[in-house]
Amino acid sequence: MKNIFIILAAFSFVSCTSQNSDKIKETTLKTTKKTETKKDTMSLKIVKTDAEWKALLTPEEYAVLREKGTERPYTGEYDKHFEKGMYVCAACENPLFTSDTKFDSHCGWPSFDQAIKGSTTYHKDTSFGMIRTEVMCAKCDGHLGHVFDDGPKETTGQRYCTNSVSIKFIPSK
């Protein structure tokens, strides 16, 4: 009986090791694959450990982007910011929004009526007893905020309520 247990334990270890090895290879391929088109670049996932994200981001950026936090309203750098340019993910610099889609929704956070196609992903968020749609960076899965259907009716009707700390602004040249 003891020998059977040892054989089963060894088989289980080899099986797990093999699966983990495949996952490591897959992760490595995702992060090192070279692409030539913009579409391919946006679809590549950036995979980092929590320790790597903590070393890369400020504590506030980490709390919002990785732990799905929210900055206090009317405190963010980009709430009343209306220069021409592009807004990118603060974690991975994935282009997310253009300045011509930004509007003042008077909610205390930067608001956009649409994201750059393919730059974001969406997840059902049922936290805090509400049903909302979470918006995440398609490249690094960083939490950006939420999207609501109360935006400008003359455009998309959507309001991407975004944390300033989750984005960075790149001015037009």
TrEMBL record:
Alphabetized InterPro entries for the sequence: Met_Sox_Rdtase_MsrB, Met_Sox_Rdtase_MsrB_dom, Mss4-like_sf
Swiss-Prot/TrEMBL catalytic activity: L-methionyl-[protein] + [thioredoxin]-disulfide + H2O = L-methionyl-(R)-S-oxide-[protein] + [thioredoxin]-dithiol
UniProt KW Oxidoreductase keyword: yes
Domain of life: Bacteria
Record has Oxidoreductase as a keyword: yes
Top enzyme class: oxidoreductase
Lineage: Bacteria, Pseudomonadati, Bacteroidota, Flavobacteriia, Flavobacteriales
EC number(s) on file: 1.8.4.12
Pfam families in the cross-refs: SelR
Assigned keywords, A-Z: Oxidoreductase
First and last residue of the signal peptide: none
Protein known as: peptide-methionine (R)-S-oxide reductase
Residue ranges of every copy of the MsrB domain listed in the record: 50-172
Name of the encoding gene: msrB
GO molecular function ontology, one term from the record: peptide-methionine (R)-S-oxide reductase activity
